[in-house]
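Table S7 (text form). Paired inputs.
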Amino acid sequence: MFGMILLVACQAEDLESTNGAAYWVEGVGDGTQVVPTPGSSKATMHFTALYDEPTNSLTGTLKMENLWEDNEGDEVTAIEFCGPAENGKTGTKMKGIITKSGYESNDSQRISLSGYLALLPDEVRVLKEGKVYLTVRTRNYPDGIVRAQLKTTLVDSFDKPAMVKSLAWDG
């Protein structure tokens, strides 16, 4: 069996989107944003991602802090994108992320939505409108230990430095 991985890393000035439609997605959250019942946890999260409209892919990193500071022995059960909902309102699950086991109190996870997990047209629309939130659910906090409302900003054709241009597998 023959396999090939092609990974090309470029500086920002070398990158071009087919039509320049790229969005910076960011959300900062804590337990006070959880609906319907705000949590008392000291946990926080920061999500940063790039949404590329031509390829319909969202790729980023979720950083979590103090997950277990006042919640020892708990475990993450789900990480979900939910909407449509404005801050303080509840939406429905749009996409679930496969979680790893054994999160540390301060941990991070790469998140990629593409291919069969890609956002549907209505999900893209509500993401751009700021009506999508990310929530981390645990066994002790089934409604969410932290929640972050996501905001999007149109960026000028991948202006984030040293982005990875492409990853392909042929095998």
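Next pair, protein 2 of 2.
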Amino acid sequence: MSEKVEASQELSDHYAASLTIRDEKLQKAKKELIAVCDALSETPIKLVVISYNGYGDSGSIEECRYYTDVEGGNGDSSELCDDELAEALSKVKEFDVQVYDYEAHGYKSCMRPVGDKLEDLAYDFLPCGWEINEGSFGTLNIKVDEKELFRDHGTRIEDVDWDADTFQLEG
């Protein structure tokens, strides 16, 4: 087999393995999100809206907003204010979150508030490459009682519109 064919096969195998790992992570994230929804169902929270934004090879979760009805993302008054949110979330157990330990140069498990767990899980529901080049942005809308996540995703695309002209310099 030629070196080019071997390299192509190795790349194909690596890609297939990465897809398998991603699918396994997504299945685990779904199970963990069900547990979060179960915990939140004991509160007045009916909808969680998580916004994200990425470009230039980096990205982040921008914010998590909590609503008392599933139509809350439409900008109405059902968003919980800070005091209401603090009271509602104080009744929710903490969850295991993987946190990067800079001294140990690796991840470790820590018990954290539900908001941290939601942010941690959100990354597993974003499409591959969401933060690359021009990037993308959007929201993850979690209906707590229905145990449903809806991703509203926009991909930025750079476009070029060429215009060419020839100019006669004499005559």
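The first strand starts at residue 47 and ends at 55.
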